[in-house]
Amino acid sequence: MSTQDNSFNKMMQNIPALSVIFKEGDTGRVMYVIMSGEVEIRKKTGKNSYKTLTVLKKGDFFGEMAIIENKPRTATAIAKVQSRLIMLDSEALYTMVGKSPDFASKMIKTLSSRLRKADQLIEYLLGSNDEKQVVMGLAVYVKGHPELDTGSGEYKVSLREFMRWASQNLGYPDQVILEAIKRLITRKVLTVNTSSGKISEIYVAQNLLSRM
User: Fold this and answer.
1) Which terminus of the chain faces fewer neighbouring Cβ atoms within 10 Å, N or C?
2) Is 18 found in the same domain as 106?
3) Amino acid 130: pLDDT
4) Where is the signal peptide (predicted)?
5) Triad 44, 123, 187: Cα angle to 5°
6) Beta carbons of 148 and 158 less than 8 angstroms apart
7) What is the pLDDT of residue 5?
């Protein structure tokens, strides 16, 4: 067996059905190409809830943004059935892109499509102008408060403290800001912990704010 074959086999992984490949918020140092099987990509929408974003099949790839941007995983990947994956670190990825024009072309087209869909989804989710201003305000606010990073792909923001900041910086009345936040919560753009019976803290996904 050649050295190239040995290297290729080392990159292969056989994943049992229903196994978690990585979790949202994990540090990502590799991406995956599906050789066989199916992989579900899901996103947290609350403390104990999630939404399936897509199901990927043979020839698809996932997990690339974590190594391209050097940021935590923005979603969870689970093998729906027994799957065989090629695992690529950043060096192997750039080597493959350089040596395989077909792979590079597919990757560019896929990334472009995903970014376009993400922008369209954000436009739909944010709705009215005051809601957009609130989310853009959150993006500015958390940049000045790195301690709000939960380490799991989202920020935990005190509603009282953000309202105080927003009333001074966004140019909207407090009631307008609060109503916009409530609508964003209803559409699950923002999430909350309602165990106390009232909204005291809001959670916002880092990947949403990174698009602002």
Assistant:
1) N
2) yes
3) 82
4) none
5) 45
6) no
7) 47
Q: How confident is the model at residue 211 (pLDDT cuts 50, 70, 90)?
A: low
The token duo for 202 is 């809001």
Q: Is 78 within 8 Å of 94 (Cβ atoms)?
A: no
What are phi and psi for residue 100, nearest 5 degrees? -125, 95
Band of pLDDT at residue 13, cut at 50, 70 and 90: very high
pLDDT attached to residue 57: 93
**97 and 133 both lie in a single domain:** no
Domain containing 139 equals 127-209
How large is the angle between the packed helices 101-126 and 129-143, nearest 10 degrees?
120
Structure-token pair, residue 121: 């989804």
**pLDDT recorded at residue 1:** 42
Helices (H), 16-128: 64-69, 90-99, 101-126
| DSSP for 104-148, written as a single string | HHHHHHHHHHHHHHHHHHHHHHH-SHHHHHHHHHHHHHHHT-GGG
